[in-house]
Amino acid sequence: MDGRPTLETVAQRAAVSRQTVSNVLNSPHLVRQETLERVRAVIDEVGYRPHGAARQLRTRRSRVIGLRLERTVDGINGAVLDRFLHALTEQAQLRGYRVMLFTAHDDAAEIGQYGELLDVLELDAFVLTSTHSGDPRTAWLCEHDVPFVTFGRPWDPPGTDGQPDHPWVDVDGAAGTRAAVEHLQDAGHTEIAFVGWPAGSGVGDDRRAGWLRAMRAAGVPQHRLDALDVATEDGIAEGAVAARRLLEHVRPTAFVCASDSLALGVLATLRSADGDLIASGPAQAAVVGFDDTPVARAVGLSSVAQPLTEAAGRALDLLLQQLSGSSGAPTRDHHVLLAPSLVVRESSASAPPT
Predict the structure, then answer these.
(1) CA angle, corner 274, sides to 246 and 290, nearest 5?
(2) Interior CA angle at 278 toward 277 and 283, to 5°?
(3) pLDDT tens track for 59-91
(4) CA torsion 305→192→207→178, rounded to 10°?
(5) By CB distance 3.0 to 4.6 Å, which of 24, 119, 203, 269 could disulfide with 39?
(6) What's this model's pTM, rounded to 2 decimal places?
(7) Could you give the dihedral angle defined by the CA atoms of residues 143, 145, 150 and 153, in that order, rounded to the nearest 10 degrees?
(8) Which keywords label this protein (predicted)?
(9) Cα–Cα distance measured from residue 224 to residue 41, given in angstroms and rounded to the nearest whole number
């Protein structure tokens, strides 16, 4: 191909109009999914990139999206947001946008950054992560009419303490832990413990709820559920302590954990007790984590995987819909709940004790 590929080049290759290519780049919600995928494939194939300076003059947009980069705790679960960020950045670039990272030590500092970034750099929009109950960031952005989307549900009903309705994308954690329990039940386990976070964390409560539903559906009485449920802060050491407590007092045959960090701690306790990291015989308990981190894959830990690439793409679509000026009042289409998938490995492949 001679010279730099143009909008016309993409249109001809994809057998669509120039306007359709423009909609794919700027208003993807207007384009049928089949056409969207075909045009994006051609954009990637020919290496088309919109002329940023000319388009910025025409649209008066910076075509820059802001996202707060959070501090990782143990280097394991931080990989989840790293993968989401990579997918978001990659897909934004294909559509002529850039993602700008910034740091803040808490919500108030993040809100302070919003004002500065909007005034000085004229950012177009923001992506928020780590949503939680009473989150003040969404209220501030709505009050200032700033386009944004959250990766994570609002954990308060709209209108609670001024919480607005807004676009969001999330992964169904309860469905993930329920699938983990049902997998273990199919293998013959009945004494399935849950190692999770203290109550009050929206994400943690959601993941605990899936375990509870599956166990109650199997007829496990409440007093036994209370004994099998342990809450602790996130981390490998914390997971190890929780597992020791359960093994000493309850003797579960399997563990479902709210994170891979906690699951790795459980595996460490099983290794110290039985001399083997991965369950490989009928005398050992099975373990399932959550987030399917690289460490889980390396050690053979079964884990619930989040569709992070899809989540990033859907979040970006919601942002571009707002930036195109056609968002209107939030509707069900502004709320995207994605299904996770269970990845079964050696840690939950063995038969339960007999």
Answers:
(1) 55
(2) 100
(3) 457 899 999 998 766 657 678 889 999 999 999
(4) 70
(5) 24
(6) 0.79
(7) 50
(8) DNA-binding, Transcription, Transcription regulation
(9) 53
